Every structure is written in C-alpha cells, then in structure tokens.
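Q: what sequence does this backbone want?
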C-alpha cells in the first residue's frame, strides 16, 4: 500500500487555529442579533477594507490568513448591510497599486477571489444578492476573469442588494477610462468636445447606473481615500474606524450608519437656518 503522509504538526496546528478563528468570526457576527437602524439608512455604502495584514500579525499568522479572514467578513457584512436596508455595497478589495506587493501575496489574493465566489455562491444566491465588479478585468489572470464574467452573468437578474467588488481598481484609472471613451465619441462626431458635461463623464464611468455612495467607511484607522471612487465620493460622508476589517462586524456597521445619520448633508449649500439668517432683510451679513 502507498504510504499516506500527514501535514507536519506545526502546519496542522496552524490550520486548526486559523479555522477556529474563522469559526469565531462567523459565530460572533450574527446580523440578526444586531438591531435595525432607526431612521434613514444610506442607500449606497462603500468600504475601503483595510487591516487584514495587521489582524494577522497580531495573531502571529501569515498575511494570507488575514486576507482569508477578511473574505469571511465580507460575506457577513453583505448580509448585515442587506438586513439594514442598504441597496448597494461597494468594497475596495484590490487596487491597481496592490500589484507592488510581494508576488506570493498577490497570487494568494487572486486565488482567494475565485475561492470566495465558489465558497459563498449558494448563500449569495439564497439572499438574492447581485454580484458586480469594477476595475480593469483584462489585466487579471484568466481564472479570475472567468469567475468575474460568470458571477455577473449568473446573478444579473437578482433583485436584492448589489455587492460591487472593486478589483484591480483605481479611481484615476477609472477617469482615464471615461476620458478615452469620450475622446472616441468626439472623434466620431457623436459629441461636441466643447459641450462635455459632468453627466457625460459620469455615464462613462465603470458603474453609470449605480448612485454615488452616501457613506464611505475606512477600517483600521487610516483616513484617506487611497484612489477609491474619487469622482463618485465627492459628496459622500466619510467614516473612519480603528477596527481592523476582519473584526468589523454587524454592530460596527450599525455604528457607522448611526454616525452617518447624525451628519448634516448639505452638498455645498447652507443649512436651512443659516440660509434664513443670511437672506435679505433677515439681519444676516
């Protein structure tokens, strides 16, 4: 008989410890146990998912383990957002700048992209979640491109929350994409270059049918957009939290929504009381 081999004790112990951590993540994040937000919920939430590597380092795990925990969290937050009434959830999963990371980490992220779909496809189908992707698909490995195309086609008719994964995405790259399409329209005579409007740019972005985000969340304590939705997020409310992405659960999402509900969204205009006081004859200066 051929001799069977077992993983080294250290490797087996690592796998058990990682699986235990992932199981606890799932158990600790029962969206049903978190109350629904009172009042108006943002229609579109965008999240810059950050902190996977630090989460893994704190637990003496490799960075790939942090990314795997982050993928687990993405499924949970999708369910929590849908339960809160969010209609669009966009997550920044892999930026155009992430190619500069070590090749083994990039390769692991590509494999995780495909694995995430196959692991959660049935649950997403049951939840009526539509999957969409934004970014430069042509530069990705063939299996990632195939998964991207299949997931979008297979879920196109679903009516629930739209989960939009920004993968190989950059905000400046998206604007270059829009500019090239407008240049082609101008060259063919379909548009007058002197009459290009903001609406013309918007309809040539990756997701022209998706409303701009109301709320942009960044985990892990950083406070920058990092080239994410730089056109679409012009008037979004920004919420930074020190919570690392694998620990960002349904309760943390509710806290972000509640903070958003306290904001006064004026889109550049004055608040009603300020406008009244500034009106002619109202004593304002």
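A:
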């Amino acid at each position: 008989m051929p001799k069977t081999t077992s993983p080294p004790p250290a490797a087996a112990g690592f796998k058990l410890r990682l699986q235990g951590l992932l199981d606890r993540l799932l158990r600790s994040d029962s969206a049903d146990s978190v109350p629904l937000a009172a009042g108006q919920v943002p229609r579109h939430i965008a999240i810059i998912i950050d902190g996977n590597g630090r989460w893994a380092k704190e637990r003496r795990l490799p960075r790939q383990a942090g990314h795997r925990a982050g993928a687990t969290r993405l499924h949970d937050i999708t369910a929590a957002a849908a339960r809160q009434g969010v209609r669009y959830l966009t997550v920044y999963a892999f930026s155009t700048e992430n190619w500069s990371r070590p090749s083994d980490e990039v390769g692991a992220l590509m494999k995780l992209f495909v694995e995430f779909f196959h692991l959660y496809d049935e649950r997403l189908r049951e939840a009526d979640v539509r999957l969409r992707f934004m970014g430069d698909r042509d530069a990705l490995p063939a299996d990632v491109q195939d998964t991207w195309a299949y997931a979008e086609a297979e879920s196109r008719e679903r009516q629930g929350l739209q989960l939009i994964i920004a993968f190989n995405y950059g905000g400046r790259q998206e604007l270059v994409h829009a500019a090239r399409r407008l240049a082609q329209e101008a060259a063919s005579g379909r548009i007058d270059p002197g009459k290009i409007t903001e609406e013309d740019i918007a309809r040539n972005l990756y997701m022209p049918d998706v409303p701009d985000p109301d709320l942009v969340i960044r985990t892990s304590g950083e406070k920058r957009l990092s080239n994410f939705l730089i056109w679409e997020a012009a008037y979004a409310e920004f919420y930074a939290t020190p919570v690392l992405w694998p620990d960002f659960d349904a309760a943390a999402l509710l806290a972000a929504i509640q903070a958003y509900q306290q904001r006064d969204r004026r889109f550049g205009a004055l608040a009603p009381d300020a406008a009244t006081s500034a009106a002619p004859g109202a004593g304002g200066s």
